[in-house]
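Continuing the batch. This is chain 6 of the set; chains 1 through 5 are on the previous pages. Same settings as before, nothing changed between runs. Recording input and output for traceability.
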Amino acid sequence: MAATVTATVQQPQGQLNGTQSQQNTMKPRSNGPKFKLIHQGEILVCRLNHTRTIISKIMNSKYLRRWENHRLALTENEVISASPGGFMEGSIPYSSIEDVNIISRWDAGQKFCLRITIPDGSVLLQANNAYLRDQWLYSVLWKRHALKYEKLLKNTRRPEVLTKEIKNMIDYSLITPIQDPGVYQFPLELVSELLQQNENVISRVAHEGIIVALAPLLDYSHPTQEICDFFTKHCKNSPRSKIVMELFTPVVHKILKHNMDFGKHPRSRIFIQEYIQALSLQNDGKKIIQEFIQNMHGPGSSCPHPRVLPNLVAVCFAAVYGCYEDKKCALLNNNSMNTTLLTEANVRLACYIGMLDYVAEYEDWRPCLASLVQPIPFPDDALADEVFTSNFKPILTQFAIDPRCDVHQCLLGVREGKEGWFHLYCPGGIACDDDGELYGLMLKGLTCCCCKRKKFLEGMMKMISPCMLLALRDNEAAMQVLCAMLEHEVVEDNDCKMQIITTLQSTSKGKKMYSDTCDRQIALRELQQKGGPKKLTLPSKSTDADLAKMLSSGSFGNLECLSLAFTQVTSNCADELIKLPSLRYLNLWSTQFGDPGLQLISEHLQRLQVLNLCETPVTDKGLEALTGLKNLRRLNLNSTSLSALTFEGLKEKLPGLQECDVRYTDAW
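Output for chain 6:
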């Protein structure tokens, strides 16, 4: 009859009849559409009461039926209208909804409808299209199920029932066509609250069951801090569990790749610490940790995830601090457990330092790791502990043998006057336990890069005694440093000079190196004798060897102007240029003269007034050294990698600079 609503239930994309079981209701097709969760929106509303009387049948007939436009909001507990009145004068609690389904057969022009069945009738919602209709359908269903599970789980006390219902809730979150962060976050937050309330009643079996249930959800969202505590507890209590390797590994990978600040999420960091410790307790734990680092880095030559290294280092640094806090507590508590606690702390310490050692094996990670380690971010107790200093030596060894300046220079102090790893491991230093073996290796690495820089040599004056000791033991790097000190006249005290000479002449290798130094000094004096040309221009295509041969051919003590423009000289020619004390004009236009050479001449050619670096490969790193040339008046940096910030620094620290060409640079 006309007053009867004629409708059939349509299967929407991925949706079966709401009266069927939950698993069948929400099992979407793998290629079905996905929807964002609706929180509020405009939609047409019609309300139908049960047709129990003739009057109600007449009022609900299709001829008298009317639609109202409402802005509905789906809150946590109910459906409400932004402007209550008419059909939506009262709210619709989710708990009162009996069914939600799509109406497939309706009046012409009103075909995109869904029906919400409530005890006293039905509420019809009409959308503009099928997609929007289905979006409202799944959003209402999700809100309804979320409220249902929240009430059910908060009132459940039996662990096995709790585990089962948590799994059902998570399964529903994973199969619903609604794809929204809130859909994945709601179960995590609810489980977090439940774990806090039921921490003492959850059995080990239930503990593992909850973790297994949570695992698929964590592919879409980060674990909450409470869940991280839950995972941490499992790592401590069951480190050899299969769950650690199979389920926690993807979660840890995700945190390390995306976390921005462990300060805001400290329990995530603690979870990763315990996860790493659990890996080390597996059979062949070292190999497993090494494979874990390899997977985090990836197969390429550089890691594609920039947050992985800082996060790994932060975890290891915090773990080292934690180990020494545990050691302090163990020493303060005078009981029979002290030895066991200290042993456990040392095992953990070796694990986390070993992690840093594996990280240092990757060339792309080493510069950043060296810069993070340079300030010595460890407690004083660690630096005085042989367990720490001996385990940390392989990391410093990797820094020392790395030819890159930004790596091995991190062995020095982070700023002038501040001691670094180089000082801690010198013979007689607090961390030295190998008679200077590591110190000699570090000295060799620094010598190859920095020994001809006066600042480094002047700094070595404070460590002259251990350097001479290593020279007596036939350490070649120490001998090179002593010879460089004599050659560049860093040592002013005559007694100290004599002691250095005596030390060098104590070994056959040292005697030969000192003899070569003396020969170079004689040649230098001949070169610097007054006489020779005041101006010199080398032909194009000239090389470093050509310049060296030219300067060795006679006296150039009067040379004030040198042009090497359009030649093939590199930074290596700086060793020859610093022998020219009268040089005032230097033209290096369109050469391969770079940062190392620029750093060297900035320390030695103090009379330089005009410098042309146009079209050279110098960068901010080398250009910052120009602040040492206080007599500089004219500077050409056209077409270089000069930045605006470095240019401002040069102008500030070189007040005598009258002209500076910065065209075609970032400072232009």
